[in-house]
Amino acid sequence: MPDYLIRHATLRQLQVFEAIVRLGSFTRAAEELFLTQPTVSMQIRKLADAIGLPLFEHVGRNVEPTEAGLELYETCKLMFESLANLEMKVSDLKGLKRGRLSMGVITTAQYLAPEILGEFSKLYTGIDLKLKVTNRESIIERMHANEDDLYIMGQAPQDELEVESYEFAPNPLVVMAPRNHPLVGKKKIPLAAIAEQPFIIREPGSGTRDVTLRTLDAKGLRPNIRMELGSNEAIKHGIAAGLGLSVMSLHTVMLEGAGGPVAILDVQGFPIMRKWFIVHPKGKELSLVARTFLEFAIAHEPKIRKRMQTMWPALRLVLDNKKKTAPRKKRAAKK
Ligand code: PGA
Fold first, then answer.
1. I want to staple 290 with a disulfide (CB 3.0 to 4.6 A). Which of 3, 34, 149, 240 is the partner?
2. Is 126 helix (H, G, I), strand (E, B) or coil?
3. Which domains, from first to last, does the chain contain?
4. Which atom of ligand 1 is nearest to the CA of 107?
5. Which residues of the chain have pLDDT under 50?
């Protein structure tokens, strides 16, 4: 038993220390933990006294962990992982009455995740929910750091990390135009006609952007990019304001519907049928809450499909054709 440290160091001090190293700053750690700066500094002074060595050194304007600090950081990570597992097992023992579910979802999944979480929370009222919406790079970082229980993505990581992924809902990409655009209402518009139009495109790293560029490239076409935007909502406003056309997920218009200020064009080769996946790092032990949510989301899928088809009836035809040619797997293969 490490008697000395048990008597002189506290878990709270270790928590403060871990946050400073992870965030690279006393100020950010104080913010994250809702503490004042003097409290943070005092906790670290006491911890350094208990360890008997300085834990941080100043390098220019930054603080960096000393060698003793780095050793302590590794120990903290192991301890916190064990404690998180313990919390999870204890909440499993308590059943689903209480618990937490933390999810990280990719930008466009922000239109989908709240709906499913909303339905889930009606059944399990005691579960606290946390949803982080961010780009692919941050989602993968969060997965590496084991920050959330589950992730929703349009494409599971392949080289970066070994994961388990479960297909659970369609993500049709469609070409959108302002309601008063001359192409609205035209049938089977050739892709070349779209490539000529001013175009708004998502930021590099976006799954929507990759697929759009690849689809055009496969036909030897390049979009006439007028603007690059990292937000689907901003793109919708841009389309409505006449800045250009864009390719976006049908989910982005779920609230206003297909008859709103942004119209869906009938373009050859569209919709592009992407899928949503629920992902977690391979080997991660899921909590009872996370396992229950995973099952719930997969079972909820027909409702999402139905809502999409009601909102945009043209989708039914595409999905029916897909069913005839390739029956959908219930659960996606592991990546
Ligand atoms: P986004 O969409 O990265 O363009 O937000 C998710 C995806 O379809 O991969």
1. 149
2. coil
3. 3-90 (1.10.10.10), 96-169+275-325 (3.40.190.10), 171-274 (3.40.190.10)
4. 5
5. 327-335
